[in-house]
Amino acid sequence: MQRTDVKILGAGANWTGLSGRIAIGLSGYYSRLPVGSTVATVTSDPAQMCYEGPMLVADGTYHMAITTPGWAVRLAAEGHFPYEKPMPLRLLASFPHDDRMAFAVKRSTGIRSFADIREKKYPLKISTPVPTSWHPAIWGAKAVLAEYGLSFEAIESWGGKLLVDRPRFMNAPEVKPVSDDFDAVFDEALMTRRWKRITDENDIVFLPIEDDVMQRLEAKGWQRGQIEKSRFRGMERDVPAIDFSDWVLFCREDMDEELAYLTIAAIDEQKNEIERLYPAPYAALTGPVDLHKLAANPPIPLHPGAARYYREKGCL
């Protein structure tokens, strides 16, 4: 391995902290990188970088990046929507992040299904990420709505509205979680204080995704999940939903094998510090940094260098 300037894309507050600890583990005193090497972590709009990250790693702009949900990197690697062609990507680690994509409406709307929205032409005022951002929750919502013959544009044509009210920091206790006039929330990040407040302060119904729709989405590479009835106040049953779990750290398939190996070694060294970045009860990282789990059920093949470290530690 030659002297290198490692670049990690860790966009947004949560991933900047995680990628920063990886950078510290790779560099500093007693670094195992070649003398003179540097490690930089870069932040940006996390919504946009969820989508662009795979492309920026594939074209060599960054050595590695983080995105969510875990299966989104598989879409990029295989060239499924929203990507246009397969990309040469490999997994380094998959961090625990227990999340779902939710389609929630106020009980007072009378809406109990996606068909109700379509048939009643209900003018929903929807809290959702900024549509132009290509946040996974936006293209995810668009794809699910399309399966039901719906779209944001159609809902707006009936008098509905997309609200620009998603808080920048969804765990901040002083932040207003949603506009007073909202009818629905189509979004992810269910582990945050925001969703706890929305469901505690409003009577909410979570719309189920029917099995035939779920099967079609699975055939396109999406992952099935459910919102457990114990998760929020007022839920009467488990609700079928799109899984939005895991943060995946990934790289190009031809990244230097030693760099991949040292990246996992850095995570191993920094695992306690990483966990301290995400305190309960509304932690974005929803489990310990366990090497066995970081390598388990990878959505795309592990990079050989990462696999070597996991194997040496008895995790494969």
Rg over CA atoms: 20 Å
CATH level-two architecture of the largest domain = 3-Layer(aba) Sandwich
Largest sheet: 7 strands, mixed
Count helical runs.
11
The CATH topology of the largest domain is what? D-Maltodextrin-Binding Protein, domain 2
Strand content: 15-25%
Shape estimate: elongated
Q: What's the domain count?
A: 2
Unreliable stretches (pLDDT < 50, length at least 5) are none
Query: What is the CATH superfamily label of the largest domain?
Result: Periplasmic binding protein-like II
Secondary structural class: alpha/beta
Mean pLDDT across residues: 96
Instruction: Report the helical percentage.
Output: 25-40%
Top CATH class of the largest domain: Alpha Beta
Strand segment tally: 12
The span between the termini is: 25 Å
Helices and strands, in order, run as EHEHEHEEHEHHEEHEHEEEHHH
